[in-house]
Amino acid sequence: xxxxxxxLFDAFAYRARVVKQGDIAMIVLDGGGALIVAMDxxxxxxxxxxxxxxxxxMVTDRGRFLxxxxxxxxxxxxxxxxxxxxxQLYKLVKAMRGAGHGMDDWMLPPExxxxxxxxxxxxxxxxxxDAPEASADGQGEQDGKx
Length: 146
Fold this sequence. Notes:
146 residues, alpha+beta, four-stranded antiparallel β-sheet, 4 strands, 34% helix, elongated
């Protein structure tokens, strides 16, 4: 009897569920928490993992598959933590809210967890009178010293 070798995705999905919700995919790992990733990134990682062979070690296979994601939002106590830059996470959080997810259950930066979703571009640039102004030599004011 010839045994078929498992693919990396088959080994990963053995003790995991993937719930697809529009622009996001929620990955629930048995004993490993939950993660939300962008659907387009999930599809690319899924195709990649279908072409790779399993190592036989569930933890290694999970890690190899999850390393393919450049940004994700994780629940506390998950296999991996939240990763990605503010702009990527902002888009992911908008999609999560659109799918009906509450932000209290997820590990997020405080500015993205707020009731009113803050755009990272607005957070990074101070506005109004409090914004430091550039002097004639091109440098901003530093600690009140001239």
